[in-house]
Each structure stands twice: as C-alpha cells, then as structure tokens.
C-alpha cells in the first residue's frame, strides 16, 4: 500500500433491508438504509460522518466493519476487497479494524469483569502478549485514564464516561489501524463528552490511529475531524475538509444543520440566521426521487425532482451533490486526481 | 448514626474505592451481580425461611437411614401389635403418636408413619430435582439455540415446544407406567420406576424453561456487547457460551427453582394414582392414596399432606425471593 492509497475506500456502497409481507414472506419493498455512498479515509486522518437519526450513518459503520453484509458496492481495506469476504477470512483483519460502540451501558457484558472485557480481544484472536494478558490489559487501562487496579471490577460499578473508556480500551487492545467510532459520546454528559473526545485525540496522536467518527453532534465532529461527510437519507450530500465545510458549506442541508447547532452566547444567538426545515424526514422505504432533499429544500426546482445530482467536486477536495449549491466558486476548480487532505 | 467516634486521620481521606471494596486496599475486588443479588436475597426473611426449610428437607432426605435408625422403626416393618384387629385402626389415642412412633402408625399394617415420611422425602426430592435438571438441561440448550440462530432452527424448535406442551402428560405417564415391565434397560424394581418417572416428568417439561430462555436469548442477542464480540471475530459457540450463558443463569435459576414444586406435585399425583413408585416403597402420594381409603384416621392423611404442602410452599417462597433478588431493575 503506497502513501497515497487510502486506508479505507468505500465505493458505491449499498445496504437494502428487504421488507417481507404475507404468509409466503414475499419481498414487497426495501429499506434503503445506505444507498450508493463513496468515500475514502487516509491513514492518520479523522473522517467525521454526520447526519440526522435514521440517515444511515450507523449502518455505514457496521457495513465497514462487516458486521453487516453489503447488498451492493465495494469496501476496500488496506488494498483488500472485503465486501463479501467470509467471516473466516475476515477474522485476522478484525485486529486492524475495530469499533467503539454508542451505548456505554449495553456495549459491556454486565457479567464480565473489566479485565475480562478488555482481555477478550486477546483471547478471541489468540494473541499472547509477552507479559501476559493481565499486564497488557492493565497497561491499556492506564492508557485510557482508568485505574489499573480496577481490573476486577464490574461495569455497573462505573459511570457512563468510565464505561466508554473501558469500551475504548477494548478497542485498543490489539493495536488496530482503523477505528470506527459509532456515536462515541452521544450517551454522555457534555463535560464528559469533552474528556472522551480529548482522550480520543490524544490516543490518535500517540498511536497514529485513523478514525471514522459517526456522530450527529456537529460541534463534536468539528473538534475532532479533519474531513467531514454529511449524510442524508442514505446518501452522502457533501464531503469537505473541516474548515471549508464549517465556513462555506455548499449543500442546503449542511447549511440547515449548521444553523441548528446551539450557540452558547445569547447575543451571538440573536444575530445568527436560523434556517428551519419544513416537513419530516421522508421514510427510507420510499425515498423521494432524484434529489432526496428536495421535499424539504427551500431552493428546490423542477430539475431537483427529476435528475439526481451527482456527488461532484466543485472546489479543491470539496464534493457536493446539489444542483444549486451555495457558496459555489464561479469557476469550478480544475483539480484532477484524488482529493488532498487538509 | 452512632455516637461520635475518634476517627483516625487516615480514614477521613479514604478513597471511595477502598470504602467500596471493604477489606484492605491491596486488591480491589468488584462486587459481581451475583454477589449483589445474594446480599439482597439474604435480607429477604421469607425467602431465607423457605431456603432454610429446603436445606432441612434435603438433609433429612440424605440422612434418612440414620434418622430412621435413631428416631423410628424401619418403614417397611409391620407393627400389627399396635392395631386393633377388629377396627383396623391404631389402638392408642392420637393414632399411636408417642415417643416410639413419632407420627403414629398406619392403620391396617401398623407401619411407622414418621419413617415412611422421611423415606418418602427421598423419593420426592430425588425425582423432582433430577427431573428439573433434565428439563433445564434440554430447555436451556434448545432455547439458546432457537433464540440465537433464528430462522428455520428457531421455527423447528418452537414447533417442537408447541407439540410437547400440547401433550397430555398425565395420561401418557399413566399409560407408560402401566406398560413398562418390571425389568427394562438394565434396571429393575424401584430404580427402574424412579428413572422412568424422572424421564417422563423431565423430558416433557422442557418447553417451560425452553420458551423463557428463548425469549431472553432473543433480547440478549441484540445487545451491543454481542456485536462487540462479533466485531472482534468471535464465532457462534464463543458468543453463546461466554457472552450469553452468564446472562442467562439468572432466569434459569429462578425458573428451575419454581419448576421443582410443580414436579413434586406431579410425582405425588402419579404416586396417588398408583403409577408412580410401586408400593411398599413409601411415597407421600402413595400414603395419601392409602389414607383416602381409611379416612377415619385423620393423622394418616395429615402428615403426608402437610409434608407435600410445606415442601411446595418452601420452594415457591424461595423461588419468588430469588426472582426479586435477581430482578434486572436492581442490576444496573
């Protein structure tokens, strides 16, 4: 794998969940949870994946780690196509690709001690560290900021933030290259969120990790990501590096999302122009034709209902799927080749 | 709070973990969910009473020969001298209850009721425990398999459960007990009858546990720690044994404890009908059957009836207490 090749490349990924009805369980429709998305993640960077609840971002995370099998498209990890690889051939790969789960209360087995939970990766993968599993586990516990003497404690004796740290410790046990963090801080208090986010950043610097952070909190994503992809109803509507996305978003949906981020300062709040979207998110069982956002978009025209806007690169590294993007440069940027990271 | 103590300096700076751990700071031991449940159970007086009675009964059953040797007469020994030959009822007042015959004697044959009750405890508890074990074994294995794998495996096992539940168990037991000869499968006599009963009761009762375990497995399967194990590369058997089973132990324990009294009653019913363990081996149900014919001597029916009642009640009280102690709401 050369320097310029992405660590993870997702091409036209698709996951349709069939809907069965009737006595014979015929398929009558499909929930198009993830519909034709493509993105790359390069070594050492953090890609943030944001969107509303139900837009398919968690499903994307599970597809990438192959907890689910895609119904279409390709997933390439470290140059290897793992789209339809069997669980047997995936097992060695799982050491390099790990997932942090959302709910600190249900992602840890309540009957196992912390030592058993963080030591499970070693046992499952058959790895025998030099100093023994217990010592290795205690080292990791210290790395994430937990007291290694808590080796024999049970998850219910910890707070939410500490449990999430245990989950992170479990993820780090086998020194993975890529970590998919599925809403790692959504279930935590704001002050604890900050601690955990900072921990993730420190770990990334120390261990040279690559992250895909799935979240719906834009301020968290802004803090931790290098590039951000915005999803809506199973499709990626915008990808850009962080600075450009937050200062000059192009897609109307991104604009609306950013205007909805809470602003602490009351005076600044009054100055800000708040965009309110009308209508509800359409059902993924029956998404709107062509541009999926046109039912709620204030700029929608005829073309938006008939022609699906492709995810095109409009400025250097900034890709948008919209017929009428805002903040678009006058002349499309002529950058050829793969998008560069910020 | 108690009177003010002279608190040493170090104690006021004690870290919360040291306080929580109790003894010393050398190795912090967490309190597992099981230990917490046990502490909760100990505080439940009624459940502890039930547990005490169960322990007492088990000891009685185990030490039956010694107890009978010390306090009573052999259970099969006739004592016609205690019986009035014309009326066939015991001569003494209160049906022969006294220091020699603690619970009195039977009418007609004059056997010691006390020792028959003690030996009857053996039969009842043995059959109930082993039958429950069989049910729990089959039910857990099939329940977890159906719940975890889903699909056609689940369909097949669930339909099997429906079939077993629809079985007229009592009728089948009577038929089978009547048909099996005195010697079969290399066993004979009492051992054969007891094994047969254990098989019948245990083998047909498994859906009771099976359904519950299947339901629990279905909900456990969706928890994120199962996903976490899968994302580490764990396979089905590992997930079932190491992730799911420890969480299933609580419902298994509760419903096994509540299944035992059902099995005791069932065995008593079969003995009452004469298809259980054959006389003259003493069983509580058999004694009730005899007592039903000779109802002029009330104590003859009271003692076995009371024995069954107290045993069933003890198990039910303990099982309820166990369920409260292992209640998931308290396990967060």
Automatic annotation (TrEMBL), chain B:
Main subcellular location: membrane
Cellular location(s): Cell membrane
Alphabetical UniProt keywords: Cell membrane, Membrane, Transmembrane, Transmembrane helix, Transport
InterPro entries per record: BP-dependent_transpt_permease (IPR050366), MetI-like (IPR000515), MetI-like_sf (IPR035906), OppC_N (IPR025966)
Protein origin, superkingdom: Bacteria
Family label: Belongs to the binding-protein-dependent transport system permease family.
Descriptive protein name: ABC transporter permease
Source organism of this protein record: Nonomuraea indica
């Amino acid at each position: 794998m050369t320097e310029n090749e992405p660590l993870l490349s997702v091409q036209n990924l698709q996951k349709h969940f069939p809907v069965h009805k009737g006595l014979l369980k015929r398929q009558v429709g499909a929930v198009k949870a993830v519909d034709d998305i493509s993105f790359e993640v390069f070594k050492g960077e953090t890609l943030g994946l944001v969107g509303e609840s139900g837009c398919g971002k968690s499903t994307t995370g599970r597809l990438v780690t192959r907890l689910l099998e895609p119904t279409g498209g390709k997933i390439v990890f470290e140059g290897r196509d793992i789209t339809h690889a069997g669980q047997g051939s995936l097992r060695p790969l799982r050491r390099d690709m790990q997932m942090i789960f959302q709910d600190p209360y249900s992602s840890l087995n309540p009957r196992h001690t912390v030592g058993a939970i963080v030591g499970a990766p070693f046992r499952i993968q058959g790895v025998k560290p030099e100093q023994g599993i217990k010592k290795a586990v205690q080292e990791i516990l210290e790395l994430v900021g937990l007291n290694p003497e808590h080796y024999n404690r049970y998850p219910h004796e910890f707070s939410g933030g500490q449990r999430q740290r245990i989950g992170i410790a479990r993820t780090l046990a086998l020194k993975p290259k890529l970590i998919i963090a599925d809403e790692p801080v959504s279930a935590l208090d704001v002050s604890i969120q900050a601690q955990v986010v900072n921990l993730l950043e420190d770990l990334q610097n120390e261990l040279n990790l690559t992250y895909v952070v799935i979240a719906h909190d834009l301020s968290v994503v802004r803090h931790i990501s290098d590039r951000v992809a915005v999803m809506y109803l199973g499709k990626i509507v915008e990808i850009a590096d962080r600075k450009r996305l937050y200062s000059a978003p192009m897609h109307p949906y991104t604009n609306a999302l950013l205007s909805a981020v809470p602003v602490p300062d009351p005076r600044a709040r009054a100055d800000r122009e708040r965009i309110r979207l009308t209508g509800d998110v359409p059902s993924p069982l029956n998404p709107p034709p062509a541009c999926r956002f046109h039912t709620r978009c204030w700029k929608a025209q005829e073309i938006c209902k008939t022609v699906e806007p492709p995810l095109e690169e409009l400025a250097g590294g900034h890709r948008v799927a919209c017929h009428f993007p805002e903040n678009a440069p006058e002349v499309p940027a002529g950058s050829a080749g793969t998008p560069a990271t910020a | 709070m108690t009177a003010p103590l002279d608190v040493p300096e170090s104690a006021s700076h004690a870290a919360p973990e040291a306080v929580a751990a109790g003894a010393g700071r050398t190795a912090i031991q967490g309190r597992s969910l099981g230990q917490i449940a046990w502490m909760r159970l100990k505080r439940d007086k009624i459940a502890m009473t039930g547990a005490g009675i169960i322990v007492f009964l088990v000891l009685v059953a185990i030490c039956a020969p010694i107890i009978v040797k010390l306090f009573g007469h052999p259970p099969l020994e006739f004592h016609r001298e205690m019986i009035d030959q014309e009326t066939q009822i015991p001569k003494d007042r209160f049906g022969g209850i006294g220091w020699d015959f603690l619970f009195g004697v039977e009418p007609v044959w004059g056997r010691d009721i006390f020792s028959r009750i003690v030996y009857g405890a053996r039969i009842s508890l043995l059959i109930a425990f082993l039958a429950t074990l069989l049910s729990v074994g089959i039910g857990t294995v099939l329940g977890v398999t159906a719940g975890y794998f889903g699909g056609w495996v689940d369909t097949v096992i669930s339909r099997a459960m429906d079939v077993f539940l629809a079985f007229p168990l009592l009728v089948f037991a009577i038929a089978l007990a009547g048909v099996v000869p005195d010697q079969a499968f290399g066993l004979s006599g009492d051992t054969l009858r007891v094994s047969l009963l254990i098989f019948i009761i245990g083998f047909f009762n498994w859906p009771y546990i099976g359904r519950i375990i299947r339901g629990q497995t279905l909900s456990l399967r969706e928890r994120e720690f199962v996903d976490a194990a899968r994302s580490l590369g764990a396979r089905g058997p590992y997930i079932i044994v190491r992730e799911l089973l420890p969480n299933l132990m609580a419902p298994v324990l509760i419903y096994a404890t509540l299944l035992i009294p059902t099995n005791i009653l069932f065995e008593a019913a079969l003995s009452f009908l004469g298809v259980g363990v054959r006389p003259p081996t003493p069983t509580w149900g058999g004694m009730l059957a005899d007592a039903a014919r000779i109802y002029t001597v009330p104590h003859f029916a009271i003692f076995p009836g009371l024995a069954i009642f107290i045993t069933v009640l003890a198990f039910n009280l303990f099982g309820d207490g166990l369920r409260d102690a292992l209640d998931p709401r308290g396990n967060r």
